[in-house]
Every structure is written in structure tokens, then in C-alpha cells.
Amino acid sequence: MASVGGKSFLDNLGKIYAIYTGGFILFVILLGIGEAFGMSNAAIGYTYMGITIGLYAVIGISSRTAKVSEYYVAGRSVPAFFNGMATGSDWMSAASFIGMAGTIFGLGYDGLAYIMGWTGGYVLLAVFLGPYLRKFGQFTIPDFLGARFGGHAARTIGILAAITASFTYLIAQVTGVGIIMSRFLNLDFNIGVFVGLAGILVCSMLGGMKAVTWTQVAQYIILIIAYLIPPTVMSYKATGVPISEIMYGQVLQKIDKKEKEINANPKEIEVRELWKQEVAKIDADIKGLPASLDQKKIDLQAKIAALAPDAPVADKEKLEKALKGLPKDATEAKDKWDAAKKKAAGLSKQIKPYLEPFARLDMKNMLALTFCLMVGTAGLPHILMRYYTVPSVKDARISCGWSLFFIFLLYFTAPAYAAFARDTVLSNIVGLPISQLPQWMANWGKVGLVSFKDINGDGILQFYELTIGADAIVLAMPEMAGLPYVISGLVAAGGLAAALSTADGLLLTISNALSHDLYYKMLNPQASIIKRLTVSRILLVVTAVIAAWVATYKLTIIVELVAWAFSIAAASFFPALVMGIWDKRSNKAGALAGMWVGFLSCLIYMIGSRFYGLDIWGIKTISSGLFGIPMGFIVCYVVSRMTAPPSQELQDFVESVRIPRGATKATSHDE
Amino acid sequence: MAQELKGLDKQKLKDYWKYNVRLTTITLVIWFVVTYVCSALAPQLNNIVILGFPMGYYMGAQGSLIIFVWLIFNYAFKMNKADKTYGVEEEED
User: Fold this and answer.
1) Would the N or C end of chain B have less CB density within 10 A of its end CB?
2) Distances from the Cα of A465 to the Cαs of A275, A423, A462, B89, in angstroms?
């Protein structure tokens, strides 16, 4: 194993990963047999986590390297096919794996903006950037900005944008690791975060990009197996054909019919009416603050005092608990009740048909969101830098195709997940007596992902009494399909692989921006190789610890910030990179102005629309890049034309980037 | 940095770039139609139902993705061939 990444390893990649895949499947089967013989859920969970993280660690440690080109770009010797797999797991985060299907479950047609946006971006990447960056053949994305737009100014903005976009994203991944660990191993969230952190560092610290690449391939294989099994079984059980991606068409029709029935059902209408009254009640409470809170306290205290001495202890405990659960002050009460009001209001509204376009987002916003996600995808530095690692420009082009293919496998299954889950809820769950609800609802209720309230008190679950969190769709699917716990554990291991692989790529991007671009290129160009790699490794650990430390605060804003990161990357990076390759006349002044204006106009709209009611054409905050992206292009174009053209040398540089001839070669690992 | 330009026919370089720009444009036009035109017309496309899939929904969930994958491979193969045709391919070892 000491030769991971060596010549014999590279020559036998297909065989090695085929054996790995077979071995992993065998391991899952063995665990399944173990479960049949009474292995406990906790033991299965720990075995999964231990074995998978152990595997990644073995690959990571045996890929250790002291060569700069291996540390930064895996020796440029990753074949197109495997770079595609690595890019797939680099790209697919905890949110894609766990949250995507749930988003579609909730948003119906309009959720497809995420599916199209996060795949269509690869077309932009393949034609505008990937092959040209490979030809340029340095180590980081700021490297390109520095070389093309001369000097430290462009590189510095590149470093800033790379770190801002990657760091928020990294925190979200670390949080994802903590959540998976705490749910499946019953570990404390903070411990889960730091255990996960060790798993991340062991993959990237010793071997840099080389180690991250080969672990990402291993992680892709686990995550895709884990993702595809539950809907396949579900499809087989529901339709007799084990291809969920084709069979969910029938299910969509069933969903449509069921939704109409539900909206016509008098019981459901009664429930919605009750929620409307609830909204009015909460509203009155909020308006009556702080007196309304005091009144509630007095009422509860009176009730406790009025209890008969021989009343059951449970009754008293219940009332005391309610008293304790009251908000401490008016501010907390307002936050809590606002949230409750929002939830009640959501349940009081009749659902729009699942298949109807633009029912939840209007057309303008859906298209704008798709556009921002696409451009953001093509502008994320941790993805772009993967195309430095293939042996040639030719391979870079093909590798873009493989990347999207491997991502496609997961993304075209996500809507099937959503459809089967929605059908299960509408056809099998709604209408059941509360006492006969399936076990998985209670299991996921414990962590708050499933909740219901029998508001009309008829003892039967109505659709409008049920709330399902987006993450529950993928996590609970094995149980919905009646699969054994060994598959639930597999899904958790897959989610963990998705989070770890993305975290590795992001971490490397950040530490490379700091160690290569800031330290080596700008502060200390004389630094020796050993010094450069040591600095990089120290920064890796420091960045990871800071990210984990921030994650332990569980800030709710993080999810939102990740969405912002896309628009920021789209508005600051993408225009400058594209113009640098496609417009010879673009110069330093233009690029700098374009990046700043793109970045700022995007940021202004984000903050303005999120906090100060700024509104242009009704575009939502998440699509702020819609303004920043064109601004970045236009400003770069105009300012470049108003100032002197770039030197002949730079124009030749652009010419040279445009043709494959003369690209830096892969370095042989055995040299 | 630019020594690889030496000894290359200027006209051939121009033609190569022109070919690339054309292929890129075609790719992006298809990308645009598949993503934005199909989405905008989704309510109408939904009237056509195949295997239970309303076509508007299908395009967003699957059809567009398949076309994206095809677009990238098509672009890659054509460009890799064009490198040779215009004599700008990478040197073999």
C-alpha cells in the first residue's frame, strides 16, 4: 500500500478500485449477516464509521509526499475518468447527498432549479475554463489571475474570494459531519465534529492533492452505492422494476391524484381552518407582548395550584414542564412565536400541485436561481483546481464529461427519491390512526426531523398535520422501504463520505491559497520546498481547527451563507477568469475593476435584499449573482477598452493558453 | 511561456480558434435552449406525458442533464480531433 499514487498503482487503477468496490460490497453483506444474527444498531454504526474512516486514513497516509507537484496537483497524473470521480465527490457535499432530494420533495417542480443549476454549470466549465486552465498548468486559481493580470493585486483578490467562498462552505461540511456522527453514533455533536475533523486531516495533511484525489475516488464509490440502493429497492417494491429513475413517472401521476383528493377532503379542510385560527391566536399573543407572556405564566401557575391533591403526578409534571418551557423574556417569546406562526401559516395553506411549474418560485426567480447556481459552479476554486491534476489538455476536456457523468448519477436519482417518499407519505402515512404510525416516524421525530400535531383531535393523521424536514427524505428512505438497519448505516456512511470529500477539497484550496499564493508567491519566494510544504501543512491544521470551532456554535446563518458563496464566486471569479482567456484585450485595470464591482454589487444586493428590503424585479437574495455576474463582465470589458492594451508578452500568453501544444507534462511518481 | 507559438502557421491558429468559437457557441446555444427555453415552456410541455412523466418536469429532472453530459463529451471529442487537424496538439512523449 505504500505505493499509492506510484507507477504500478497508476497502471492498475481500474483493478485496484474494482477490488476495493467488491470488498466494500462484501463488507456490507457481512454486516447484513451480522445484523441477522443480532448485531446491534450501535455496533453496526460504529463498524461503518470505523472501517470507512480507517480506509480513507490508509489511503491518505500511504499517499504522503514531499514533492511540490504531487502535493499541489497530484503530479498531474490522474486519468480523466478517475479525476471525474474525484471531482464528483469533491463537488457533492453533505447538502447534495442528504438535502437535495428533500428540497425537491418540498418545492416540487421548482426545486429542479438546483438539479439543473448544479449540473449545467459543468457545461460552462468545460467550454470556458477547464481545458485552458490545464494548459496554463500552474497550481492554484489565483496563480492564473496573477499571471494573466500581472502582479499581486489580482492574485490578492483571487486569494480573498477563494477563501471567503471556500471557508463558509467548509463550515457547512464540518457541521454535516457532526450531525451525521451525532445522529448515527449518538455522539455529542461537538465530539462528532472533532472526530470528523481527524478524518478530514488524515486524508489531506501528508499527501496534499495526491492523497485527497485517491481518497475522493474511494469516497465517491461509497457515496454512490449508498445513494442508489434505497430508491432502487423502493422502486422494485412499489412497481416491480428496480430502476427508480424510470419508474417514478408512474409515481408522479399517483402523487398528482392523491394531492387533489387531499385538497378536497373535508377533514383536511377542517385542519387547515384550525391552523388559520392558530395563526390568529399566536398573532394576538405576539401583539400582546409582554403582557401576554405574563398572562400565560399566571394561567399555568393557577392551573398547577388548582390541581386536586390526588391528581396524577403526570398531570402536574406536564403543567410544570409547560411552565418551564415558556420563553424567558419578550424577545425570546417573539422569536419563538414568530417561528410557530410561520409553521402554522405554512400548514394552513392549500398545497400547490407537485408537478406545476413556478407554483412556489415564480418563473423569473427560478430561472435566475438556475443561472446563479450554474455560474457559481463554474467559478468555485476547489472544483477548478481539479483540472490541473490530469495529464493533458485532452484529458481535461474528457474529464469534464466524466465529472458531470458521475454527478449526474446522483442528481438524476434525487427526484426519484423525492417522488417515492412523497408517494409513501401521501398514500401510506396520511389517514393512518396516530397510534399505528410506522416506527421510522418516531425514530426521526426524536431528532426533530418529523413532527405532527393532531390539531383536530380525531386520532387520525391528516396531511396538514404533518411536517417533514428536508433531511429526513434521504435519511429515512431505507426505513420507509422496509430495509434493514445495515442499509441505514450505509446511507450514513455515504453522507459522511460526501461531507468529508468536499471538506478535504475545500481545506486544500484554502491552505494552498495561503501557503502557495500568499506565502510563497508574495511573501517569501525564496522558501525551500520543505519549508513551503511545512507551512502548507500547518495552515491546513489551523484552518481545519478554526472551521470546526466555528461549527460547534451551530450558527443558523451558515446554510444561507453557503448559498451566498455561490453567487460571490460567480460574480467575482468567473468573469475575470473567462475574460482572461477569451478576451485578449482585457487588462489588469479591467479585471481588477470587474472583480471588485462584480463582488460588491453582488454583496450589496445580498445584504440589501436580506436585511433592508432592497428589491429589484422581485429577485430573491439567493440569486444576487444575477446582478453581479453581468456587472463583472461589462466593467472588465469597458475599463479594459478605456486603458492601454496588455503587453505583447501577455497577449502571446493568452494565445498560448488557447492551444494545447506545449502543456506541462505529468511527472512520473517514481522519479 | 509562449515559445510553443513559434513555428506555427498564423492562419492555422486563427482557423483553429474560429472553429473552437463556433463549436463553443453551438454548445452554449443548445445549453441555453435546454435549460431556459425548456423551463420557461414547462407549463406547456407538461401537457405531453410519457411513461407518467410530464415532459416539462422530465426535462428539468432528467432530460436536460442527459443533454449536458452529451454536450461536454461531444465538445471534448471534437476539440481533441481538431487539435490534430490544425496541428496544435500536445507533443507525445
Assistant:
1) C
2) 9, 17, 5, 64
What's the predicted TM-score (pTM) here? Answer: 0.91
* Contact assessment for residue A470 and residue A105, using Cβ atoms and an 8 Å cutoff: yes
- Minimal Cα–Cα distance from A437 to chain B, Å? 29
pLDDT tens digits, B43-84: 888 888 888 888 999 999 999 999 999 999 999 999 999 988
- All three cell numbers of A58: 490508509
Indicate the class that CATH gives domain A7-238+359-417+483-556: mainly alpha
Residue B52 to residue A374, Cβ atoms within 8 A: no
| Digit-coded pLDDT (tens) for A458-491 | 888 888 888 888 888 888 889 888 889 999 999 9
Please give the Cα distance from A142 to A507 (Å, whole number). Answer: 16
Closest CB to A109 among B4, B24, B60? B60
Polymer length in residues for chain A: 671
- Identify the top-confidence range among A19-23, A427-431, A604-608: A19-23
Shortest Cα–Cα distance, A250 to chain B (Å) = 5
Domain ranges for chain B:
8-85
CB contact under 8 A, B79 and A397: yes
The DSSP output letter for A612 is S
**What number of other Cβ atoms are within 10 A of residue A81's Cβ?**
20
- Yes or no: say if A417 and A474 are a contact pair by the CB < 8 Å rule: yes
Chain A 221-280, CB below 8 Å of chain B: which residues? 245-246, 248-253
The Cα A388–Cα A80 span in angstroms is 11
Q: Does A660 sit within 8 Å of B83, measured CB to CB? A: yes
Nearest partner of B80 among A370, A399, A377, A572, judged by Cα: A399
| Distance spanning both ends of chain B, measured CA to CA | 20
